[in-house]
Design goal:
Blueprint lengths: L1 H78 L2 E4 L14 E8 L8 E5 L7 E11 L5 E6 L10 E3 L4 E9 L3 H7 L2 H24 L7 H13 L1
Antiparallel strand pairs: 1-2, 2-7, 3-4, 3-7, 4-5, 5-6
Helix pairs in contact: 1-3, 1-4
Length: 232
């Protein structure tokens, strides 16, 4: 009896070792599957975030381009206002360099002392100036002439301007700090970029969002196959 027992014991130990090895293989396979699934999930999340960022940038540029187009092109035609950028500090602190002056055409008979107008000066290069009216006079032929001054200047302007036509641009609002940005946006290359680049980026973002959708998860099937192999 003792002899038989000593012969059977190695066979039992050998069977157990084979089972343990099989279990180890299954565990290793499961671990590899879990690691692969985790990496795929992380990649999918990264792609999803990247797609949303690109899409957000495209939408933002498209909205910005639309707002600029409405403000600079449609607004003046529909609402009748005009915009200009203050280049000097002659009207500080009310209007500073880089501020946008919004004006509306006003009958010259309605302007009064204290109004701020934008007009062509009658000397030198006849540049556009935005200054405050300090005096109004009537010319010999019945026209309206104005004396103006910049709020920050020590003295009045060295000219008297006769207003031409029936209206003059009168200041109704000032938008701080965006004049330089608008001047840059009016450049042809920038306008073309906004008009054509923004839709392109938006399309790329939409395609990226489609591309970044996570594929159908197959991890459960893989795990089931591993378990089936383990059972066998």
């Amino acid at each position: 009896m003792s002899t038989i027992t000593s012969i059977n014991e190695p066979a039992v130990h050998g069977w157990r070792s084979a089972g343990e090895a099989s279990a180890a293989v299954v565990i290793s396979a499961d671990g590899a599957t879990a690691t692969g699934t985790s990496a795929a999930s992380a990649t999918g999340r990264f792609r999803s975030i990247a797609g949303k960022v690109v899409k957000g940038i495209g939408v933002g540029l498209l909205v910005l381009g639309a707002l600029v187009f409405l403000f600079l092109a449609i607004g003046p035609r529909v609402l009748g206002y005009q915009t200009s950028t203050m280049l000097t500090g002659s009207m500080a602190p009310l209007i500073n360099p880089g501020d946008v002056v919004v004006t509306v055409p006003t009958p010259i008979t309605d302007v009064k002392v204290g109004d701020i107008i934008t007009y062509h000066i009658p000397v030198e290069d006849q540049r556009v100036e935005t200054h405050r009216i300090t005096e109004i006079t009537t010319t010999a032929d019945g026209g309206i002439a104005v004396q103006t001054k910049g709020d920050a200047n020590n003295g009045i302007d060295p000219w008297i301007a006769t207003l031409q036509g029936k209206t003059v641009d009168k200041q109704i609002a000032t938008i701080p700090h965006i004049g330089n940005a608008i001047r840059a946006l009016r450049e042809p290359i920038v306008m073309n970029t906004l008009m054509y680049g923004a839709p392109t980026i938006l399309v790329i973002g939409m395609l990226a969002s489609i591309w970044t959708k996570e594929p159908t998860k197959t991890a459960p099937e893989g795990a089931a196959e591993s378990q089936a192999a383990s059972g066998e």
